[in-house]
Amino acid sequence: MKEKELRRSQAVLPIGTVMKLTNLSARQIRYYEEQELVIPARNEGNRRMYSLNDIDKLLEIKDFLADGINMAGIKRIYEEQAEKQAEKQAELSKPLTDEDVRRILRDEFINVSRLTKSNGYSFRTNRNL
DNA sequence: GTTCTAACA
DNA sequence: TGTTAGTA
């Protein structure tokens, strides 16, 4: 599932193609970059190169605009989105709580118990787990 | 021919 | 946001 993400983030589309795909003008696409909403990669000749993810984001911005949301509003939406993702990242880096450890240990015992029984062995204590 | 930046009769 | 000028 990671190979796919890499492809979607591969910047291979010139602005002309993006214009046709999104129905946005070059002026608008560049303006959104100025507003730091979609920052494309640049090739050797300083030409903007967009990825499929960039296309999706531009289409999303287009929808927000159609719904009457202004630049400031869209920026806020993405800022809040970034905050929530940062929280989830922090959550993942937190050390395990005692409760987490007990739950993991219990699941492990259940697995061991099942495998052991299939081999004809069993522990009396398994019944209490 | 396409894209870039900067600027506005 | 459109459009145009002068480049690369």
TrEMBL record:
Keyword Transcription regulation (UniProt): yes
Annotated transmembrane regions: none
GO-annotated molecular function: DNA binding; DNA-binding transcription factor activity
PROSITE patterns: HTH_MERR_2
Entry keyword annotation includes DNA-binding: yes
UniProt name for this protein: MerR family transcriptional regulator
Keywords: DNA-binding, Repressor, Transcription, Transcription regulation
SUPFAM superfamilies per UniProt: Putative DNA-binding domain
Coiled-coil region list: none
Domain of life assignment: Bacteria
Domain HTH merR-type per the UniProt entry, residue ranges: 12-80
